[in-house]
Design brief:
5-stranded antiparallel beta sheet; 4-stranded antiparallel beta sheet; alpha+beta
Length: 171
């Protein structure tokens, strides 16, 4: 991760920040509460250490907390944090994208895919009336294919490293 390898950007001095309007609307001294907008750096990794999402140095993300736009475990982990605080948030599947639901892995005739001009390629993302999925198995002997409609991060424990830059009442 570039952010960790090169060190995270530090906030400017209070004088510089006031001149740049970086702290405009900031709730100084308070911790993150539901409804606040939070500007932060983050890196999301899986248990094997692979990165699935991250902000880039100089381009932090801003989220509103407590309105259902973030996974529950991430929001819960942010609540109570303060400006400048760094934290590692570990989120079990139930508080992230849920466990893998076997009912969302559907078996179809490969001919249906061929008729829909979908190549028979394992790992290929597909879009159907059921939603977004991925071909996870093709059995040429039976003429069947399995499509997994679970979220790609379902069943996975997620780890986020976060650094809070700003807390405000407005985006």
């Amino acid at each position: 991760l570039m952010l960790l390898a090169s060190g995270w950007s530090e906030l400017p001095s209070k004088k510089t920040a006031q001149n740049s309007n970086l702290l405009e609307g900031t709730i100084v001294g308070d911790s993150i509460q539901k409804g606040n907008y939070v500007t932060l750096y983050y890196k999301g990794t899986l248990e094997d250490g692979s990165i699935f999402d991250q902000t880039q140095e100089g381009s932090p993300a801003t989220f509103q907390v407590g309105v259902g736009g973030l996974i529950q475990g991430f929001e819960n982990g942010l609540l109570g944090m303060k400006i400048g605080e760094k934290k590692t948030i570990v989120i079990p599947p139930i508080l992230a994208y849920g466990e893998i639901d076997p009912a969302r892995i559907v078996e179809v005739d490969t001919q249906q895919l061929v008729d829909a001009n979908i190549p028979l390629v394992q790992g290929l993302p597909v879009s159907t009336s059921t939603g977004q999925g991925k071909i996870v198995e093709i059995n040429s002997e039976t003429g069947k294919a399995k499509i997994d409609f679970n979220h790609p991060l379902a069943g996975k424990t997620l780890t986020f490293e976060v650094e809070i830059l700003k807390i405000s009442n407005k985006p």
